[in-house]
Write a structure and sequence with these properties.
The protein has about 60 residues and is α+β, with helices and mostly antiparallel strands. It has two helices and four strands; from the N terminus they run βαββαβ.
Length: about 60
């Protein structure tokens, strides 16, 4: 069985807008005062956050290296 893919974030592009939080059906992404966090234990690998990010900050690790 293949492991779920968990998105990675390029912090230099992210402005913590929160769009990813709003589209995550697993509530795996949080934005706090100290930054952005994705809980890999909650992430279902759906890619909603990757598709919704207006700054193209998120990607799956094997994409666009």
């Amino acid at each position: 069985m293949e492991a779920l893919k968990v998105p990675v974030r390029d912090g230099s592009k992210c402005d913590l807008c929160g769009v990813c939080v709003g589209v995550c059906p697993a509530d795996a992404i949080t934005i706090e005062l100290d930054g952005w966090d994705l809980d890999p234990g909650l992430c279902i690998g759906c890619g909603n956050c990757v598709a919704a990010c207006p700054y193209r900050t998120l990607r799956f690790e094997d994409e666009g290296k």
